[in-house]
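Allow me, if you will, to draw on your knowledge of protein folds for a short while. The matter concerns a single protein, recorded as an amino acid sequence and a row of backbone structure tokens. Kindly check, if you would, that the fold set down in the tokens agrees with what the sequence suggests. You will find the record immediately after this paragraph.
***
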Amino acid sequence: MNAVQESTSVEPPAHQREIRGFEVPVDVRTAARFLGVSPSLVYAYVERKQIPHFRMMGRAIRFSLSELEKWRRKFFVNGGINE
């Protein structure tokens, strides 16, 4: 994989997402890329408590990709009429 493909990847490689069975939390920018929205929209969701998140050491906002995936699935639209 070349450097361009690696930098545009939505999810980090598996070895970076999990350490000894624990999922590594991601920051706002990574969560925004995962969801396909802007970081400012993610901050707005956090402010309104509309997105699963937690804070590390007081102010640092972090997300679990598995929780974001579950949250994202709630908004899935089948895409067809009368399907």
Remarks:
- Strands lie at 18-19, 22-23, 54-56, 60-62.
